[in-house]
Design brief:
The protein is of the alpha/beta class and 220 residues long. Helices cover 37% and strands 18% of the residues.
Length: 220
């Protein structure tokens, strides 16, 4: 029982950290973020979408990390975004909560992961999310941006998603790819050095977890 109380406290503290970084959330958004832990913990017991040891760090390691995309760009209402290799819904679901007027299309090649993301999106009433079980090469629709979380090397990702980036612009940055990455990136970014932008998430999020985490943007 004591362990459960400790875990609940840890989860609540992380949720408060999230709310501190995003103080302008509506009551509905706070409820939606607040509901994620119980939903993912329940699904994770059946289908492993997050490391079992890491589920209690959901808000810090997965939700807040996903929202690190906003350090690079705030999406304008009416934008459309594809999340490639979404897994159980990261970064797509946290971003869809934060931007209710932006359309998010979540894609993953593993059907059971899409099933979890679909169930979570439905449970919290997200109306701006569509999902597809397929490989990135098979998705032909076009979007303003593609986002991704450490799915594959940058050059491979660029090859796959170039076809998915639409020409018309509506955001503060030209349309392209925004990735969450960790560790040493100089080698990966080298082919795109002229246009790529890299930001350290530790400049915004002060928790130790973010010390090596980065967000990378490549215009396409």
């Amino acid at each position: 029982m004591e362990q459960n109380n400790e875990q609940t406290e840890k989860v609540n503290q992380q949720l408060e950290t999230l709310f501190r970084y995003f103080p302008d959330l509506t009551g509905k958004q706070r409820e939606q973020f607040g509901a994620l832990y119980a939903l993912y913990a329940d699904w994770n017991a059946k289908i492993n979408v997050i490391s079992r040891k890491d589920i209690e760090n959901l808000y810090l390691h997965h939700v807040l990390h996903s929202l690190g995309i906003t350090c690079m760009l705030q999406f304008r209402p009416g934008s459309s975004v594809m999340d490639l290799g979404t897994g159980g819904g990261f970064p797509g679901i946290p971003l869809a909560i934060l931007y209710p007027e932006v359309k998010f299309h979540l894609v993953d090649s593993i059907g059971k992961k899409i099933k979890v993301a679909q169930a979570v999106a439905e449970a919290i009433g997200l109306e701006n999310v569509t999902l597809r079980h397929c490989r990135g090469e098979e998705e032909k629709q076009q979007f303003d941006f593609v986002v991704s979380r450490a799915v594959m090397p940058l050059a491979d990702l660029v090859k796959i998603v170039r076809k998915n980036i639409r020409k018309q612009q509506m955001n503060a940055l030209p349309n392209g790819l925004i990735c969450l990455k960790g560790g040493e990136l100089a080698h990966e970014v080298l082919p795109f050095k002229q246009q790529a932008l890299t930001l350290d998430l530790s400049d915004t999020f002060k928790e130790e977890y973010f010390e090596t985490k980065k967000v990378v943007y490549v215009p396409l």
